[in-house]
UniProtKB/TrEMBL annotation:
Keywords: Hydrolase. PANTHER family: ACYLPHOSPHATASE (PTHR47268). The active site is at residues 46, 64. Belongs to the acylphosphatase family. It is an enzyme of class 3 (hydrolase). The keyword Glycoprotein does not apply. The keyword Mitochondrion does not apply. It catalyses: an acyl phosphate + H2O = a carboxylate + phosphate + H(+). GO terms for molecular function: acylphosphatase activity. This is acylphosphatase. It comes from the Bacteria.
Amino acid sequence: MNVFKKLRDCYVISHANNIKFPKFNSSSIIRKRVTFSGRVQKVGFRLEIYCIAERMKLTGWVKNLEDGSVEAELQGEELQIYFLVNCMQALKRASVKKMAMIDVPISEGEERFKIVR
């Protein structure tokens, strides 16, 4: 791992771990497929989603797409998913130009959130 990537990853993890979560009211469990387009690769975007999703105990996955966008499936309480999506759209080191979100079926038995390579 090169020095720049290591420093960036440390920064991303620190940033994600310092995000203050509001008190979420209970909401229904949903699953969304979200695609973020813009400058979202090579800036720690997937790692940030992963860290926040893990802290919130969401399940699903995140991956880079060949067209330069990032796709994620997020499963958990609706209000938490929308909070995470809003955090990613507001991220200063990335530039989300477009975001698309669709409903997908709940994945029963899924236990964790993962980065798909």
